[in-house]
Design a protein that fits this description.
By secondary structure, the chain is mainly beta. Helix content is 0%, strand content 56%. The strands form two sheets. Strands 2, 4, 5, 6, 9, 10 and 11 form a seven-stranded mixed sheet that branches. The protein has a four-stranded antiparallel sheet with strand order 1-3-8-7, with no helix packed on it. A hairpin with a 4-residue loop joins strand 7 and strand 8. The N and C termini lie far apart (40 Å). The relative contact order is 0.33.
Length: 119
């Protein structure tokens, strides 16, 4: 099994920055891609950024140019640097992993970390 623990959220003013961390443990060898998701109140969970084991990244249009995802494979850690935050970025942020053996995203949801951006 794989576990993800998210941290680094908080309250920040619009235009500010936060850096989220996602620590993975367990059977991480099967995880080829790690993604950051977020869920705002009353909305569906959405994928905002992902990074493959070799470093390839992809971002949703809503965060492109403001968020940067990075990873340290040796430390099994993925970060999400969020700059120029907007009130619409307010959400609980989660990370999850793509299981290459099952060829699907896993159900490895942790507690998430709350990000609140005030206007």
């Amino acid at each position: 099994q794989v576990q993800f623990v998210e941290s680094g959220g908080g309250l920040v003013q619009a235009g500010g920055s936060l850096k989220l961390s996602c620590a993975a443990s367990g059977s991480t060898f099967s995880i080829s891609v790690i993604g950051w998701y977020r869920q705002a109140p009353g909305k569906q969970r959405e994928l905002v950024a992902l990074i493959a084991r070799r470093g390839t990244t992809n971002y949703s249009d809503s965060v492109k140019g403001r968020f940067t995802i990075s990873r340290d494979n040796a430390e099994n850690t993925v970060w999400l640097q969020m700059n120029n935050l907007k009130p619409e970025d307010t959400a609980v942020y989660y990370c999850n992993g793509y299981n290459q053996d099952r060829d699907s995203w896993g159900d490895y949801w942790g507690q998430g970390t709350q990000v609140t951006v005030s206007s």
